[in-house]
């Protein structure tokens, strides 16, 4: 019931609307009730509305408004990229991206793989059924 | 971030006459949506201060002033004079923003919403960047906390682009964070 993800300096958030959609940004300072100053290694530090952010579980240890070098160093130290990509949320996003970028031949390969997997599952199921009836 | 109000520096003077060969040059910093409006506002204010009009004056320069540090948060104090339904009043308002233009835009929208004062009834007297110690309003001072921490209480799931917006939804939204 209590809140687990807070808006605080160092919180990593995902941008879910707008030009920077899909980026992971660090909340570097809070402007007012609705806006935060965010920063990422590949963008100019700017303001963004909280409505455009979804907070993640990851938080790094930085002071208020660090300069770009300190920020990048802190991100490396906390190993944010790997933590994100190994989290279930991060993995799902990677899979979504992969699926969206498939070409027809890849979709054909996936179809074959799915059929093969279903065949193996059905064989095992048949075996189990035989054991229970026997 | 595109701002509605731009800050301009407008410089003008009255036309030189036989009695006054070198009239005094006046410079104003004001906010307007575009250059044309800025020049008009300049003459409006100058008329109220000096005996000069656009017809017997000349514009010398108009430059847009851009924010020096748009990536740092500042506390802006704005002194303004506005016309209400019953008379003129002075006001001092504080805003936290990254740029002065953003702060001015906040001021105009807040005056419109809180006091029903339209843009043309507001005159900006003075603006200043206030250091955190000298801020007067609680609503700006509450953000002067280096360990600020608060949860986002309502989460509204939005489609990531306006194109994917639908009028009807199958189920009621779950607003829990």
Automatic annotation (TrEMBL), chain A:
BP GO annotations: ribosomal large subunit biogenesis; translation
Residue span, Large ribosomal subunit protein eL14 domain: 45-117
A GO term from the CC aspect: cytosolic large ribosomal subunit
Transmembrane regions: none
GO molecular function, a single term: mRNA binding
Pfam family, one: Ribosomal_L14e
Key words, A-Z: Ribonucleoprotein, Ribosomal protein
Keyword field contains Membrane: no
PANTHER family assigned: 60S RIBOSOMAL PROTEIN L14 (PTHR11127), LARGE RIBOSOMAL SUBUNIT PROTEIN EL14 (PTHR11127:SF2)
Family according to the record: Belongs to the eukaryotic ribosomal protein eL14 family.
Protein name (database record): Ribosomal protein L14
From TrEMBL, chain B:
Keyword tRNA-binding: no
Protein's GO biological process: cytoplasmic translation
UniProtKB keywords: Ribonucleoprotein, Ribosomal protein
Presence of the UniProt keyword S-adenosyl-L-methionine in the record: no
GO function terms (MF aspect): structural constituent of ribosome
InterPro entries in the cross-refs: Ribosomal_eL20, Ribosomal_eL20_dom, Ribosomal_eL20_eukaryotes
Signal sequence region: none
Transmembrane segments: none
Superkingdom of origin organism: Eukaryota
SUPFAM superfamilies the UniProt entry points to: RplX-like
Location of the Large ribosomal subunit protein eL20 domain: 6-127
GO cellular component, one term: cytosolic large ribosomal subunit
Similarity field: Belongs to the eukaryotic ribosomal protein eL20 family.
Protein name (Swiss-Prot/TrEMBL): 60S ribosomal protein L18a
Species per Swiss-Prot/TrEMBL record: Helianthus annuus
Classification lineage: Eukaryota, Viridiplantae, Streptophyta, Embryophyta, Tracheophyta
